[in-house]
Amino acid sequence: MAEEKVQQRQQTVPPKQPGLFITLFWLMPWKVVGILLASLLVSLLIEYAGMTFIWAGEGAEHSRQVMLTESGYLSEGFTRSLILSQPVVVISAWIQQAYQWIFVDTGFISWVNNARSVHSQGGTVETLSRAGSWLARALWEYLQATVYVTIIFAIRVAILVLSVPLFIMVSVIGIVDGLVRRDLRRYGAGYESSFVYHHAKRYVKPAMYGPCMLYLAWPTAVWPNLLLLPSAMMLGFVLTVVTGAFKKYL
């Protein structure tokens, strides 16, 4: 009986939650890295599927055009920032350095060029079969698309980083507005609904992560404000509802 009581007590004790320091400086960075890697993987899979079924005639040219358009959005729309004094120059240097590390230093570009040389010899060398020439061409197209999509992903991540002040400002406004409505309800003896609070609280993280993942994995060129502004407004609305529906007495 004593052992059963001890087991019941152990089962009823809630698991210990990690501290704020561990959450902010260890768990949160790994979550962000996981979200970024998942978004990159999804964007690559979408591009491969599009090259196979939707824009098969364009090949890697589709992702190259998207890359040029996204770089234009970055250079035209982010000439000033609260985070960096010269965001376009600094981010371009970072992307160039990342390109050097990921593709040049690892030998990936050499591999792509070898596949391209095999493709260029496919129509002239008689020893290569038609199937081998088609395989070399397909491989080269997908490798080129991988490079372009990765650069697009880096550009969009930079745009999200530069948009952090927007999300902070909207979050602060939403929290302040929610606190004001909470105080009005508290002093006016308004109706308190824990149902609204708990259900709205569940949508805080999806409102933060969902639009960012959608933006990073979007297969075509998209103007950043077309997704970022509605995402910021949705986050502010969710925070307003959560803060305003918080319990009446702290």
From TrEMBL:
InterPro entries: DtrJ-like. This is Membrane protein. The lineage of its organism: Bacteria, Pseudomonadati, Pseudomonadota, Gammaproteobacteria, Enterobacterales. Keywords: Membrane, Transmembrane, Transmembrane helix. The chain crosses the membrane at residues 20-46, 147-176, 227-246. NCBIfam families: conj_TIGR03747 (TIGR03747).
